[in-house]
């Protein structure tokens, strides 16, 4: 239990941290990754370049500082981050490295203002926060459907949209995984550990990919969009998977993770419709959810809404149609942004029934704008579920 004095000091320093939070975390990453090069095998260096992870960490540290009187209110956020940490195989021994470097960065940025009392209070607070993460993550490691990184073989590759390739993988015998007994929760993601050789890269690169089918009959399926941005190098791992990974190759995967899943208690009823709202490659987890829903209860009303640039980039057309055919009450709407207006509150008002349970997946901008539109429509907040393909905290206002 943190002392009253420690909690008072931590709360009193929140405004200073708010002012310097992003500078502190950027310095923290620079120092930590400079002195612990082995961590470059875990952290996504493009996220560092873009500042996404530093913002997420700063937000979380501030949220923790504000809630220092009762850290249990952070638990839902810790669980969500814990899934990512477990998927990336972050271990308890990593926490002191982060703690030491975070405190050093605070000292460096605040200079004389960082008195020994302040530093000690933050050391205690960090330790309390780290203990919560470690205990939440221990449960996740215990419950993971396979330990650590296990070898899988690519058994099929299929182009499922102009920029999207679907991979089907099966566990290699050395993994000891029995595919037929693997519990799959639609909405969860796999994490792939790769070692792309581009630009003499010496480090592993880890990325998450959503499982795109509820069935494991032919293997585990995930689909990858080739990430391209004007005037930027192509995405490291998506380019590697698209160009260099073929049938027969091995991929190392950590066990499915994530808390994006259908509301269990609504699957078997037929009054509250399921709305699946996808943009681009964001269709991946939603397709698995669609398949799961029609397998469990095909009578529940389902509305599938998919936004895509044009017809050639529309992903999973065949798979979506096959799954929707099994539903007795379904509607499919496709919006091509090349020629139609984007999805806005008017569109959502017309097409999403009030009270529907809604699952959204797509780019950050897409998801943030959908969340904002639903807020305008006063759609029940706990009926909106979403999965950004990047740090989730950046989308959430804590
Ligand atoms: C929970 C979750 C589920 C996901 N599911 C899927 C999925 O099902 N399918 C899928 O395709 N993706 C999915 N993703 C995204 C995926 O994990 C990767 O982030 C994505 O494939 C990009 O990785 P990359 O290595 O190819 O790109 P990175 O190398 O990480 O680059 C990302 C982007 O930055 C640009 N870039 C490269 N270098 C720089 C630079 N120096 N400065 C600025 N920009 C730069 C690249 O062009 C690229 O567009 C998911 C992510 C999460 C968190
Ligand atoms: C209490 C301490 C920590 C906090 C508050 C924290 C917070 C976060 C947050 C908010 C995210 C983004 C989650 C998301 O994607 O939604 C994240 C991701 C991540 N964390 Fe942590 N974390 C902590 C400890 C650690 C440790 C000890 C390590 C390993 C050294 C680590 C490595 C990572 C990595 C690799 C990611 C993925 C993002 C990327 O690759 O850029 N974290 N963490």
TrEMBL record:
Residues 1-138 form the Globin domain. Residues 147-263 form the FAD-binding FR-type domain. PROSITE patterns: FAD_FR, GLOBIN. InterPro entries: FAD-bd_FR_type, FNR_nucleotide-bd, Globin, Globin-like_sf, Globin/Proto, OxRdtase_FAD/NAD-bd, Riboflavin_synthase-like_b-brl. GO terms for molecular function: FAD binding; heme binding; metal ion binding; nitric oxide dioxygenase NAD(P)H activity; oxygen binding. Keywords: Detoxification, Heme, Iron, Metal-binding, NAD. GO terms for biological process: cellular response to nitrosative stress; nitric oxide catabolic process; response to toxic substance. In the C-terminal section; belongs to the flavoprotein pyridine nucleotide cytochrome reductase family. PANTHER family: FLAVOHEMOPROTEIN. This is nitric oxide dioxygenase.
């Amino acid at each position: 239990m943190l002392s009253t004095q420690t909690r008072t000091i931590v709360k009193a320093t929140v405004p200073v941290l708010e002012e310097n939070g992003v500078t502190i975390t950027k310095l923290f990453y620079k120092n930590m990754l400079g002195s612990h090069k082995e961590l470059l095998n875990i952290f996504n260096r493009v996220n560092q370049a873009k500042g996404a992870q530093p913002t997420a960490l700063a937000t979380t540290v501030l949220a923790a500082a504000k809630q220092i009187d009762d850290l249990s209110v952070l638990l839902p956020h810790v669980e969500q981050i814990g899934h990512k940490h477990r998927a990336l195989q972050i271990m308890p021994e990593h926490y002191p490295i982060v703690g030491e470097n975070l405190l050093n960065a605070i000292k460096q940025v605040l200079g004389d203002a960082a008195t020994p009392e302040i530093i000690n209070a933050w050391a205690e607070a960090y330790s309390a926060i780290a203990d919560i993460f470690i205990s939440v993550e221990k449960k996740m490691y215990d419950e993971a459907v396979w330990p650590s990184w296990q070898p899988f073989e690519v058994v099929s590759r299929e182009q499922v949209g102009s920029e999207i390739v679907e991979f089907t993988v099966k566990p290699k015998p050395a993994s000891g995984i029995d595919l037929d007994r693997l519990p799959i929760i639609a909405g969860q993601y796999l994490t792939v550990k790769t070692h792309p050789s581009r630009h003499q890269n010496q480090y592993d690169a880890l990325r998450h990919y959503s499982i795109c089918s509820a069935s494991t009959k032919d293997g585990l399926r995930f689909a990858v969009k080739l990430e391209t941005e004007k005037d930027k190098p192509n995405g490291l791992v998506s380019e590697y998977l698209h160009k260099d990974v073929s049938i027969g190759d091995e991929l190392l995967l950590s066990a499915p993770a994530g808390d994006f899943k259908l509301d269990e208690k609504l699957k078997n009823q037929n009054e509250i419709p399921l709305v699946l709202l996808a943009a681009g490659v964001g269709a991946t987890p939603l397709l698995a959810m669609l398949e799961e829903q029609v397998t469990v209860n095909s009578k529940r009303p389902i509305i599938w809404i998919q936004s895509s640039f044009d017809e050639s980039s529309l992903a999973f057309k065949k798979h979506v149609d096959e799954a929707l055919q099994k539903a007795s009450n379904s509607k499919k709407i496709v919006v091509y942004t090349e020629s139609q207006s984007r999805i806005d509150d008017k569109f959502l008002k017309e097409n999403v029934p009030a009270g529907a349970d809604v699952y959204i997946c797509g780019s950050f901008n897409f998801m943030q704008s959908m969340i904002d539109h639903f807020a305008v429509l006063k759609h029940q907040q706990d009926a909106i579920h979403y999965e950004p393909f990047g740090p989730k905290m950046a989308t959430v206002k804590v």
